[in-house]
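Researcher: Structure for this, please.
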Amino acid sequence: MPRSIDVDALVGQVLAGQRAGMARAITLVESALPAHRPLARRLLAQLLPHAGGATRVGLTGVPGAGKSTFIDAMGCRLIERGHRVAVLAVDPSSTRTGGSILGDRTRMGKLAESDRAYIRPSPSGCHLGGVARATREAMIIVEAAGYDTVIVETVGVGQSEVAVAGMVDTFLLLALARSGDQLQGIKRGILELADVIAVNKADGDNASEARVTARDLSIAMKLINDESTGRRTPVMTCSALTGDGLDDVWKAVEEHRAWIDGTTGLARYRADQQIEWMWAQIEGQVLDSLRSTQELRELGRELEAKVEKSTESALDASAEFLTAWAGQLPGYRWN
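Model: Predicted structure, token format:
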């Protein structure tokens, strides 16, 4: 990252669809340096009026479900129809070293070759569930650059999927051909989030088992879905390898978006997401501020020791800490 960043020039490069400019813009919004945050906000403020026109899809699935292969096949299919596809792939990062695999370009080889596709692997770092902190901001950048389809690929089935579902229009769960107790590997919470479910690798010897799995998942969704919404999550089979069923999956994505338009309304749906994100940001900043000074960090360690030795209750210790924290905020009192 250069020492001096010309935000206006960067905005012009993004709006012109220049890939190098897009990469620099995303790097800026991903930066954790305090000096870069005001610049990132300026950048996003200028790009925001040009964003919002894309179809936003979140993709999750158990390890081995073939998420990257699915995106490669589906992305190429969409490009053939005239779309421009951006993939924001969140990679698993080492909690020890912060290293990231960043292997999506090799797993999406065909899609990566297209000049109508943009793939951005982002290390998840230590943030909850592996969702890169700046994924939402990166979405604004690629949309402003003219990409009309944005796919957010998650690390896997876990806690992070709640965050991804809160930033996309349609949340797509990719499942494997399994049956019986093996379906327990997909947690109920993930099934409740799913707007569309596709059982992948439904080809060859797996085709029959995939149909059985789709039937089992359909029964599960009948029990989970809230009938008051008037919509049941569709379950289908597909094969990213042969291309069978991919058109049906995308049709289900489009039908879900149309359902949003006809009920909540897409603008209201996204506005609600942004409000939730605003409070999540506020809560995150408040949590960060709890350890923002050496004094508070030392107090926290002292209180931990007291609670550990049972010389002070957790309730009293928390009240003492919050009183000290509130004392650093002008005009604020902790009750």
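Researcher: Any notable elements?
Model: Residues 8 and 148 are 23 Å apart (CA to CA). The domain at 1-50 is CATH 1.20.5.170 (Single alpha-helices involved in coiled-coils or other helix-helix interfaces).
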